[in-house]
Design a protein that fits this description.
Layout (H helix, E strand, L loop, with lengths): L12 H4 L1 H9 L1 H4 L2 E5 L8 E7 L2 E7 L5 E5 L13 E3 L3 E2 L6 E2 L5 E3 L18 E7 L2 E5 L7 H4 L3 H8 L6 E11 L3 H8 L5 H4 L1 H6 L7 E4 L5 E7 L20 E7 L3 E6 L3 E11 L2 E11 L5 H29 L21 H13 L3
Antiparallel strand pairs: 1-10, 2-3, 2-5, 3-4, 4-9, 6-7, 7-8, 9-10, 11-17, 12-13, 13-14, 14-15, 15-16, 16-17
Helix pairs in contact: 6-9
Bound molecules: FE2/S2 (inorganic) cluster and fe (ii) ion (FE2).
Length: 364
Amino acid sequence: MNAAAALCSLDARFYTDPGIFAQEVRGLLARTWQFAGHAADIPDAGDYFTFGIADQTLFAIRGHDGVVRVFYNVCRHRAHELLQGRGNTRVVVCPYHQWSYELSGGLRGAPNSGSVPGFERQNIRLTEVRCEDFHGFLFVNLDRDATPMDAWFPGVREELAEFIPHIATLAPLEWVEAPEACNWKVSVENYSECYHCTANHRTFAEGVIRPETYQIRPAPDGYVLRHITECQSLDKMTYPVDLSANPRAGDYRSWFLWPMFSFQCYPGNVLNTYHWRAGGVDRCTVWRGWFTPGGAEDAVIRRLAAQDRDTTVAEDIRLVESVQRGLRSRGYVPGPLVLDPACGVMSEHSVARLQQWMREAVGG
Ligand code: FES
Ligand SMILES: [Fe+2]
């Protein structure tokens, strides 16, 4: 008899307990690199967009020096929010009492501040947040002391340049938004294994990739899970691929960056992304991003995005929402993960790694 006990999935409370969710918002989500948006969406000085990370509202804005900076979206006077949505502005003006800030964050003017003894304009700045440009993809970390993304995700920057030779030219063509009635971890775990693919994703498994070649490898170091597979034989592919274009044209790969982002390269060097936002203990939103050079219209990518939305994304929503309902069942006791030493498509070792990180994040 095998004496080693099977590794079981996480207790249901990790996905249903508002206390654990609150702990994640205060801790994990505020200490990890989170996707903010794409630099191509704010090409000119004064272009900005607002977004949320953890329970905070932030905005990214391009300065006159061309640098994108990210700030908490709050006025240093009496806390009114500064910006809404997206747009362009010459200076950031607070709607409440008209304090104004330079694009680089310094206070520019405050009405009647001359009557305040010792008012030192130069000492008042918007609170800046760590931001990294990862091939045009902007990530932020609310932890000022966070180690850089290359330390979290070793090798990924270089591999992306190899798999997507034109990555520097890309801009978003389409964002597909999918709200899911489940805990973000249910969605991220589902994304990170392909044990369910053959039974649930016919189009993906038969028309995009070759399941028998699928491997998901947790990196030996860092917080990245790589999905590696080959494309389907060309006659079965749901879109045209020119295999002679470059050495990686026939490959599929994805790089999941803990905890809530993934770069995917589809055959044909087609870059697309997943990112998640946690809205509450039992709701999250997933976005699928699709990119082309300069954001140019591309009928093949549009069709691929629509096909993916109507098949893989829709199929996954049904799976993850059923799991969330199941996690509330009094009849559920966590079952063993299927850990095949050969790895491969029918193994859940990537889920084991994720669940280890999930436990560590809340000291559980
Ligand atoms: S709160 Fe912004 S100017 Fe008063
Ligand atoms: Fe799936």
